[in-house]
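In the laboratory, one determines a bound structure by crystallizing the protein with its ligand and collecting diffraction data. In a computational setting the workflow is compressed into a single prediction: the sequence and the ligand go in, and a structural description comes out. We illustrate the idea with zinc ion.
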Amino acid sequence: MKILGIETSCDETAAAVVQDGKKVIASTVSSSEAIHKKYGGIVPEVAARKQAEYMIPVISEVMDGISLIEIDAIAVTEGPGLVGSLLIGVETAKSLAYAWNKPIIPVNHLIAHLYAPLAEGVEFEFPVLGLIVSGGHSELVLMNSHTDFKLLGETRDDAAGECFDKCARSIGLPYPGGPEIAELAGKFEGRSNLKFPRPLKENDTLDFSFSGLKSAFAREAKKNTNKKALAYELQEAIVEVLVEKTDAAFVKTGAKMIVVGGGVSANSRLREVFDEKFEKIAVFPSPSLSTDNAVVIATRAHYSDRKVSWRDISPNPALSFS
Ligand code: KG4
Ligand code: ZN
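The predicted complex, in structure-token form:
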């Protein structure tokens, strides 16, 4: 079974063809990130305009050499994400489904992030504890099966990626700030007397909160010019909260496996600390599948029990778990 996946929830325009939920036949990601860099964040109208421009070429590229008969369904991100961006992907999927007479599999972008390892030879052993850490979301979810998800905790304010991005911006680094902070942090040597708060770390809740950390960082950055130390300490604080909350959820749920997904999962310090704490229990995608792509959409779709007609799907920017 081959599925064509389409992803346009943020600034990427991506398509992929994945066979049987595990074999990547083709994948392309086209990003407008460079255009947004100078604005310090995503400009939604610009992202959507670029997606309208890139969508058809990206699909043509992944479909090159594949005949329509081979495609069993079209998977598309229905949410969460930017409404204009989601609209481009969903309308494209609807048009193709109508013209090609194929079903559509609507996919939740956040859940899809957790499916990246399946496209790289990993198999889930349920129950799986998922940590989703992206630009707009920080969530802990328990997956009892491919169709049974339970939200255990989420951010009460900023997401982990958002905290990286906003703190980077406050010290003059371009968007996206996560990789910039990670790079600066890697250059820090020695010790600093600085220690940022670890919000909600000791608390019983499995929720996250990163806005207090962001404010503490901004206050410190006004008087401290050592950007490497600031970046290092910020990364340590975010990573520590993520690992501790995941550990608490792991103990509470008795999950057999931990899967980390979303853009922040590309962070090498996060990977290092998870490896130390959980050894082989925690699985990360390779960095190219950590950030937004359509491989995860087509992979997730294979395991979904939803199939709809082109008439029955519309973008849902605030989509929660489904
Ligand atoms: O999942 P993603 O590509 O897009 C969304 O769905 O939001 O995540 C983007 C987020 C951004 O906040 C970006 O700064 C962060 O992932 N990110 C990183 C790294 N690479 C991307 N954060 C920390 N370290 C990284 N290496
Ligand atoms: Zn994402």
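Residues 109, 113, 134, 262-263, 292 surround zinc ion (ligand 2) (CB under 6 Å). Keep in mind that any predicted model is a hypothesis to be tested, not a measurement.
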